[in-house]
Amino acid sequence: MAMPFSDVSAFRRNPLHLLLNRAANHPLGFVPLHLGLRPMWLVTDPKLARSVLKWPTAQVDKGRLVQTITPLVGKSLLTNVGNAHATSKNAMHRHVHRSGVIPNIDRMVAIIVQFVARLTVAGSVDTTQELPELAFQLACVVVFGHDAITAADRTLLVQAVRTVEAEVADSIFRLPFVPRLPWDARKHTDRLSYARFVIDTVVKRVRSSEKRSGVIRGLEDAGLSDEDISAEVLGLLIAGHHTTGATMGWLLYHLSVDPEIAEMIGIEADQAMQKLEENDVTALKQAPLSEAYISEILRLYPAGWWTSREVFEPIEIKGQKFRVGDMFMVSPWQMHRDHRLWAQPSEFKLEREFSGEAYMPFGVGPRACIGMSIAWFELQLFTLLVAGSLRFRGSLQSIPAPVPSITLLYPGDVFEVRPRMPSSRLKMTG
Ligand code: HEM
Predict the structure, then answer these.
(1) What pTM does this model have?
(2) What's the pLDDT at 428?
C-alpha cells in the first residue's frame, strides 16, 4: 500500500511525467496521488472531471492552495471563494467577454504589428524575454484601457508582477514543513511589500484617468475597496501574462518546424488582413486554419496544466464517497495526452475535433478562465500577423520539453527571424 507523501519526490522531480504515468496505469476515474497525509484524487475521466469542476461551490471549490497564496496576491477572483468570487466575476465578466474585448482589437493589432516590425529589423526573437512582455502589453490594453497606462508605469508593473509571481511559485513548490530562516523570510516580505506598493500606485494612477477600462469601472461600480481592485488587477495580470506568453512560444516553435503549415496560415492571413485593417473581426471567424492551429497547440501545451479542488461538505460522485478535506486534481495536460481519449495524443494534428469532453484548456464550470476571449483574440491575431509576415528558425534539435511552473512554460529559445515577403501589412501602426 502506498504511503502518505510517497509521490512528493517524483512530483517535484517531474510532475508532468508523474501525472501521465500514474493515469496510464489506472482505469479512467479517480486515481490516487500521495502528495500529503491523505490521497489527492487525480480525475482522469473527462465526465467525472467536468462533474467535479461544475459541482456547487459551497461543497467543492478551490481550497488549501488558495489559502497559501492569498497573503501574496491578495483577495481576488483567483483566490476568493463563495460570494466574493461571484461578485468579482460578475463585475468583470461583461468587459472581458468577446463583446467587451472587440473595441480593443485595433490597439492589439497595432501592438502586434509593431512587434512584427521590430522582429523584422532585429532578425531574431528571444522567446523567454519578448513573448511574455508582448502578452503583458496586450493584456494591459483590456485590463487598463486604451493608452490608460504609460510605458514607464507598464515597465514598473512588469517587474512588480514578476516579483509576486516568483513568490507564488516559491510558496507552491517549496518543500512542506521546511520553514524559512528569519533573514530569508524578511527578504521575501520586503520584496513582496515593495512589489505590492508599486502595483497599488500604478493602479491608483490609472484609476484617475478618464481612459480607464470597462474592467476597472466595473470593479468600481461593484463597490470593491481600493485594495481589492488592486488585487483584481494583479490577479488578471498574473493569470493572463505567462499563459498567453508561453502559448505564443509554442505557436512560434511549430511554425518554425512546419514551413508548410506556416505558409498555409500565411495565406489565410493574407485573406484576413484587409478586414483586420478595417477592424472587422469577422475575419477571425473566417480563418479556421489558425483556429485549429491554436486549438492543437493548447491541447498539447495547456498553459493552465492543472487545477485543484477541495471538498467542503461530504459528497458522493459515481458511487464514491468523499470526505471533508479530500482534494481533487484535474490536469488538462494529462487529459489532453491520454491515449484512451485521443488518437496518437503526442502527435501534432490539425484535423482533430476540439469540441469533446476531454478538451479543456480554459477549464470548466464556475472557475473557468475569465480571460478566454482576451486570450483567443491575442493568440489568433498573433498567429495571423506573425505567420503572414515572418518565418522562424529555432536552435532546438528536438521537440522541447515543457517546463512545469505555475503555468506550463515554453522552455525558451532564440529564433532566427526573416521576412516572408516585403510586407504591405506593416503599414498599420498605432
Ligand atoms: C492561453 C491562455 C490562457 C489559458 C490556457 C488559461 C487557462 C485557465 C484555466 C485552465 C483556468 C481555470 C483554473 C481553475 O479551474 O482553477 C483559468 C482561470 C483564470 N484565468 Fe486564464 N488562461 C489563459 C489566459 C488568461 C488571460 C489572458 C486572463 C486575463 C487577462 C486570464 C485570467 C484568468 C483568471 C482571473 C482565472 C481565475 C478564474 C476564476 O477562478 O474564476 N487567463 N485560466
Answers:
(1) 0.95
(2) 46
